[in-house]
Here is the input.
Amino acid sequence: MSHRRSSSFRAGALALALGTALALAGCSSSGGTDEESGVIAPVIVNIGEIDGTTVEVTKGNAIDLTGDDETFTDWTAEIADEKIVEFTPGKDDGSAQFNPGLTALEVGETEVTLDNSSSDESVTFTVEVTAPAN
Here is the structure.
C-alpha cells in the first residue's frame, strides 16, 4: 500500500470514528474537545465498571453509558440533585440503538443510582461536573 493510500485510509477511519462519537454524544474515555472542529467527545463509561466510582464530566458534555447490549432500554436513574445532571434513557428506534446517558447541566457533584428493571442490576456512583476550560 502506498503512503498516499495509507493516509487516505487513516483519514477515512478517523472520519468514521468521529461520526461514531457524534452519534454516541446524542445518547454520552474521558471526554474532551477536538480543538479544530469544536466537537465535544462524550465521556464513555461501562455500566458494569462504574459502581462506587466518581465520573468526571465537563458542564455541557455527556456521559455515554455503555456495556449493556441486551437490556440498555431498561435502565432508569435516580439522581440526588437533578440540577447537576439529567438522565436520558436508552432507546431503539428500529433503525439505530442509543445507549442511556447523562447530560451535565451545572457544575457540582451528585450521586446517581441506575437500576435495570430486566436484570435487577443496580449501580451507584458519583458524577462530578466541572467548569469548561476557557
Helices lie at 3-25. The first strand starts at residue 43 and ends at 46. Residues 49 and 67 are 9 Å apart (CA to CA). Residues 1-30 have pLDDT under 50 and may be disordered.
